[in-house]
Amino acid sequence: MFAIKRCIGGFPQYCVVLPRKPLRHQLRMEVGVQLIGIVLRVLNALLTPLFWLYARGPQPRLPATRPVHLRSATDLARAVREGEMTSEHLVSIFIARVKEVNPLLNAVVEDRFSAALTDAKEVDRQIEEAKRSGSFKELVTNKPLLGVPFTVKESCSLAGLSNAVGCLENAGSRATTDGAAVNLVKEAGAIPLLVSNTPELCLGWETTNLVNGTTNNPYCLTRTPGGSSGGEAALLASGASVFAVASDIAGSIRIPAAFCGVFGHKPTPGIIPIDGHIPTLNDENYPKFLTVGPMTRKAEDLPLLLNVMAGKNRHKLRLDEPVDLSQIKVFQMTEATQSIALLNVHKSIKDAIRNAARYLSKECGATISHEKFAELRDSVELSISVFFSMKDIPNMLQDPTNPKRERNLIFELIKYFRGEGSRSLQGLGFSMIDKTKLFIPAGRRTHYCERADALKEKITRTLGDNGVLLYPVFTDPAHRHHQVFARASAVVYTMLVNVLGLPAVAVPICVAGELPIAIQVIAGPYQDRLCLAVAKQLEIGFGGWHPPS
Question: How many angstroms separate the CA atoms of 268 and 256, rounded?
Fold first, then answer.
């Protein structure tokens, strides 16, 4: 079977990889899933050198960041409170940075820069008035993010700005109200600057659509920042945003965070309100899969933002209770399976997981467990069976002018490649998965749904209230634009976490060559505090976010 011995930044070399497990193990996957996986694996091997050739040559680099762009939201909120700088000055600095980098990134859908400066002046006035009246302590206690700018994923809804979410028939539509999580962040005193780009209706893992075009990765402009929160990840990594409100239904926070070397947390579902998110589904399982969550450049901001965004549910996470890392039990898996139907996890990511585990053991006294979750080898079947059991997933083939009519997938693909399409290629690909369920028989899908419930129970019991699992976010660092179609199977590393309802955070560990390398830290339900504590410690040990050179 063809595979590629990858060297980041170098020309890919071919090699032949034989199955490393007995054939009977390989055949445990559903036949349809295995065949599709093998086709994608061969396609990836054949196309990788073509993507490399296409992207050859010198690429523009982002302008260098300045010291203020490197500071955390926590630190900048303190600076505004203590009078080190005014909110107006701080907001103007980040507006200038957005204007500086966005021509290269194409991450912004619509901004509210003038209104943000007006908001910042009002914050400065409130601070002065509160100091005179003696109510300053109450003001900053109730508004811990007072005067700090932030950015919003378009799907999370910011009143007055676009909420088309990359969908042609929605072009020009605007949010009439703030999404619930956005509103909570604004009530905490933060000032929104803009809404950022996503795939069409967030149905994809690369940020590109027919309305706003393609967003670029700040570390290498010929590569993707991931999706669907790719616009936010690109702005954060380039120092153009202090923090972001984003969403995750199948890796949409963690994959972009990993590709762009920032922190992204998918919280336990049901904690942060998802009202106002687009798209939204009526299926009862939808709130179990979709979560709204924070993306940051610094790990210390995650607990603060999670407390703010959780609102009345914050007490359920006990984020203010300290975590003793010497009492943590660390599980680690460098890949879900060695099946020939799935891509191998890149060596740099495997090394990052092992190095993180050793660090937590050596420096913090954490206990390393060698127990594995063998059930993860069926991640594809479990993810597809449970996720696509939802009843009202957006039908990308439905004719918007006649809801009773469904368009032909082949004809839509032809129209797309002729430049006449009304749907993005990712949207059509998502529809294909929804229609076929990867050829998993209906009876077997029920079986996998039951097994997913059993796996959640096992992971929850095994991790308990002091265990974390170190796991890949994706099989590779950020790939070239459109290469996701050959690497789509890698999303099972994040998608299954949504299906199981577990909290997880993407943590940058290092930069290999030109690209960030990240890992995923997973905990049991409502044990988000473990994820965040480990993320902060790994930032201390490995440096966290490094801005593009």
Answer: 19
